[in-house]
Write a structure and sequence with these properties.
Elements (H helix, E strand, L loop, with lengths): L2 H10 L4 E5 L14 E5 L1
Antiparallel strand pairs: 1-2
InterPro entries: XdhC_CoxI (IPR003777)
Organism: Clostridioides difficile
Protein name: Dehydrogenase accessory protein
Length: 41
């Protein structure tokens, strides 16, 4: 399931959430610029 499918399920279940996106980085990071995640309450 991709992040957008997860968001649809959360919307259908009336759950609060936000998208977080890495917009820039420097040095060693666990994910690249543009990586996204869902943050729930």
């Amino acid at each position: 399931m991709n992040i957008y499918e997860q968001a649809i399920r959360l919307i259908e279940n009336n759950e609060d959430f936000a998208f977080a996106t890495i917009t820039s980085h420097s040095g060693s990071t666990p994910r690249e610029t543009g990586a996204m995640m869902i943050v729930k309450k």
